[in-house]
Amino acid sequence: MELKPLDPKGKLYLIPTRLGDDVPLEVLPISIKKVLEQVNHYIVENEKPARRFIKKVSPSKSQRSLVIHTVNKYTDVSEIPGYLTPCLNGESIGLLSDAGCPGIADPGAEVIKIAHEKGIQVVPLVGPSSILLAMMSSGMNGQNFTFNGYLPIDKNERKSTIKHLERTSLEKNQAQIFIETPYRNDKMFADLKSILHANTRLCIACDITLTTEFIATKTVEEWKKEELDLHKRPTIYIIQRD
Predict the structure, then answer these.
(1) Where are the transmembrane segments (predicted)?
(2) What is the CA radius of gyration of the chain?
(3) How far apart are alpha carbons 38 and 61 in whole angstroms?
């Protein structure tokens, strides 16, 4: 029987990072440390936070040995295939987001898409996703939910979108998840309280995995009696109208 040769390509490791400035190995499995110690090629959202993260998890690793490419909203997509060349030459690559899991609300999804096209094995590692942790904690429909990313900035478009998500939630029995730029959180919270129906449930999940973590689900009517300071605090919003 003829044995097929092993695939000489390296792997693309999807490496979750911390959701804030907490102790890495309190929220990350040891497998991430092992991969960071073996891999020298990285594709990251921003270089400085990535280097700090690698140094925090693996202090003995030489920073000079690292080869780092950035992929963010300013990246020319045509450059990305070249970043994966080490994998084609047998070297594995680590893909890092600024926070949480690569490819989820993150520009790294384009890297993963191209890796599949090139026949590179994609290996997701276990780690924190603020979206899933919020959904787990919300008490809403974990069998049927949608992540909607950022809502429109324009006041009228935002109001229309919020009402549409609420109607969709009722019609499909579906939890609706979305996020906001942290410095606009207080305005978002005020808009939700003024636009949504009184009996619609709203989950506010902020600073997930941090010592300041706050997660609560209440009706909009109940939230109207609450004052929260969400300014510059990473927050996930989930609504469901029953």
Answers:
(1) none
(2) 20
(3) 9
- Note whether 103 and 109 are within 8 A (CB): yes
Cα–Cα distances (Å) from 5 to 8, 11, 38, 240, in that order, read 8, 16, 23, 52
Residue whose C-alpha is closest to residue 101's, from 123, 120, 121: 123
CA-CA distance, 81 to 132, in Å (whole number)?
Answer: 30
Q: Determine phi and psi for 173, rounding to 5 degrees.
A: 50, 55
As a three-state string, the secondary structure of the chain is: CCCCCCCCCCCEEEECECCCCCCHHHHCCHHHHHHHHHCCEEEECCHHHHHHHHHHHCCCCCHHHCEEEECCCCCCHHHHHHHCHHHHCCCCEEEECCCECCCCCCCCHHHHHHHHHCCCCEEECCCCCHHHHHHHHHCCCCCCEEEEEECCCCHHHHHHHHHHHHHHHHHHCCEEEEECCHHHHHHHHHHHHHHCCCCCEEEEEECCCCCCCEEEEEEHHHHCCCCCCCCCCCEEEEEECC
Measured CA distances, 105 to 26, 50, 51, 64, 85 (Å) = 23, 17, 21, 30, 25
pLDDT in tens, 82-109: 999 999 999 999 999 999 999 999 999 9
**What's the distance, CA 134 to chain centroid?**
12
